[in-house]
Amino acid sequence: MAATLDTRRNTSLKLHPIAPALGAEVEGIDLTAPLSNEVIAEIREAVVAHKVIFFRDQDISQKQHIALGRRFGELEYHPSTEEDQPFPEILHLRSSGEGALRADTWHSDVTYRPIPSFGSILRARTLPPTGGDTLFCNMALAYEGLSEAMKDWLCTLTAEHDILTSGRTEGVDVERVRKAYPIVEHPVIRTHPETGERVLYINRTFTSRILGLSQKESDWLIDHLSALTGVPEYQCRFRWEPNSIAFWDNRATQHYAATDYLPAARHMERVTVIGDKPFFRP
User: Which of 55, 250, 251, 265 is deepest in the core (most CB within 10 A)?
Assistant: First the structure.
């Protein structure tokens, strides 16, 4: 189904697409300044239309980062956030050397929640001399590229999403985590609530199985569908600079943080906006 969002009206934002599939850089806006409700609405429209947008040279404080996120909705508290940090709305993603926190698998953020996130706003603090790009994939295009028979079948399926599927269980109280985050079910194909697009909504990091299939069949299908994120025509790639910000729609994309820079250091800060319950509209 084609997007129904009307993006033709005049906008004060200067948008420069970076790839045909998705992604645009935003020029001429200062995120440290007070932003009108109209500008906030335009930013949201740009996120939905381009699926991920990027800002350069935005030296925002942590308080400003949180305040910006709240203009788009209520913020999540990530389970990996340290309890004693002054701003619990911010998830710190620090990577350096052995034992680095890695995000080098394709995923959409927190799909293990009953109500996953709408959008993530990621700011670069410390960057390696080279490397550390983030790749994004348009999962509506991934769906459109499937055969009609596969599309029809997938639209009937439901998948389980599990926080423990990520494999990061060393030193984790599994019983406590399972109690806090029970396995949830989402449609394999979700309808985007703002564009009407059908979006492939499984990911290798958190999708544990497809209901109604044997484990072997489920594993094969998850692998087959997850491999679509590797199609270059569905992707864009962003090269970070200090104080760059990316804002992406988790309902329609997956992303991959390249760790080609280790053992150099990389420090990113993220706030995440709560979204809506995934659904499929026939």
Answer: 251
